[in-house]
Amino acid sequence: MTTEAATRRMPGAPCWVSLLAHSLSATQEFYGALFGWEFRPGPQHFGPYARAFLDGREVAGVGELAPDRHLPVAWTTYLACDDADATAEQIRSCGGTVGVGPLDADDDAGRMAIVSDPQGAIFGIWQGRSMTGTAITGERGTPAWNELVTRDTSSVLTFYEHVFGYEAEPVIAAGFDYLTLHLKDHPVAGIHGVGNALPRDRGSHWMTYFAVSDADAAARRVTELGGHVLQPARDSAHGRLATVSDSEGAVFTIIQRD
């Protein structure tokens, strides 16, 4: 459940994660204490925004919502593309929705759009130029995996296959509806069908996993910082993990890495 740098640049591969929160300072304090991130000012076209760094390498983005925007706070997964305008048009033609953009971001950094699939799961597309995305993944304090959580995998698979050219490989396990998405034989993301367990208040959504050295300790730290543990630490085929939310309610998963 990690991808090499070259793979992350392939069209369709998750290449960036970004969070819009109500308080930029409180969010920086939370993730700085949890993951050891340091922050530097980013593009301010849409309001206050900062880029998170770990050991000098860029790992994520955090922005602040306008005071009158009472939107759910959530992490957004960005998928790489070669042409944001063409990809946005293909998303529309395949039953998805383009909510924002495509538009240029931060001078020559890249071109992006915020979109949703036919089931309503929001994600971004990113045509990188000078900034191609997350500098490192899979190490402690960095994104380790991205997966779509939806009612069932079959309902949206065709959309993602047509738009991004994924090849899907089912995970064979009794009662487990999961597909691993591949690009050129490299696993890059997943689709998890959870049936009636899909949260009614969130619907279909993309989940970001962050690597930690100790999932149990990290979950305790989340609560100390004002967040919540939604699913306690448990073992999985890819490592011990827990689903948590930050101090403003943004949901993410922490997964243990040795």
Automatic annotation (TrEMBL):
Residues 13-128, 142-257 form the VOC domain. Signal peptide: none annotated. PROSITE patterns: VOC. It comes from the Bacteria. It holds the Pfam family Glyoxalase_6. Transmembrane segments: none annotated. This is VOC domain-containing protein. It comes from Streptomyces angustmyceticus.
